[in-house]
Amino acid sequence: SVLGDDEVAIQLQTMVEDINTNHFLILDETRKTTKKSRIIASNQQVVRYGNETKEEINKECERTLILKLMEIIHNFDTVLVSDYGKGVLTDSLTKKLIGIANQKNKKVLVDPKGDDYSKYFGAYLLTPNKKEAERACKSIGIENIFFWNLGDRRVFFKKNEIIDKFLSLYKNVKPCSIFLPSVWEYHPDHRATSNY
């Protein structure tokens, strides 16, 4: 990642080293290291604010990150990308990263940010939350989005109820795409639903 050349960067580097994690951090004097602060009252968060730089990293930082990726990618099966919208994962860096991973037959899993997912083209899997998925769908003209809102670890419907609900939705909406959980899903409720 890319840090500012500041006190917060020193603290972050120390924390990462203390937990004995392999890391690669670039210092950029033009940036501030992101620091989130929370104001808590009566055991509840009242407000959260950040001191950070959101502008895109420069081309030299991009080049350094790509070179590092090319150096170490053979050690990994999968590349995880978490985009926080802080300027590190520029369009060009993200596309190059995914391209390199694909050339090396590595899967890329992305936690996306924003409404335009075109920079993630070629990734194996995107994991937006519900709100992000709705915004992204609407940005490409998908107006009707249906979520079943099943709670974590709970499937409230019996097998035939899920099939009936699915068929009713399919007959009424005639969707062009349907996304269902995989039987290999980690979450038990997703696995249970996919088995139907």
- The unreliable regions are none
Would you count the extended β strands for me?
7
Classification by helices and strands: alpha/beta
Fraction of residues in helix: 25-40%
Largest sheet composition: 3 strands, parallel
- The largest beta-sheet arranges its strands as 5-6-7
Question: How far is the N terminus from the C terminus?
Answer: 42 Å
Radius of gyration, in Å, reads 21 Å
Average predicted local confidence, pLDDT: 83
Q: Helical stretch count?
A: 6
Give the percentage of residues in beta strands.
15-25%
Order of helices and strands: EHEEEHEHEEHHH
Q: Tell the overall outline.
A: globular
Q: Can you offer a commentary on this structure?
A:
The chain is an alpha/beta fold and 196 residues long. It is 37% helix and 17% strand. It has a 3-stranded parallel sheet, covered by helices on one side. Strands 1-2 form a two-stranded parallel ribbon. A two-stranded antiparallel sheet has the order 3-4. Strand 1, helix 1 and strand 2 form a beta-alpha-beta unit. The longest helix has 15 residues, at 159-173. It is globular, with a radius of gyration of 21 Å.
For this entry, give a set of tags.
single chain, 196 residues, alpha/beta, three-stranded parallel beta sheet, two-stranded parallel ribbon, 6 helices, 7 strands, 37% helix, globular
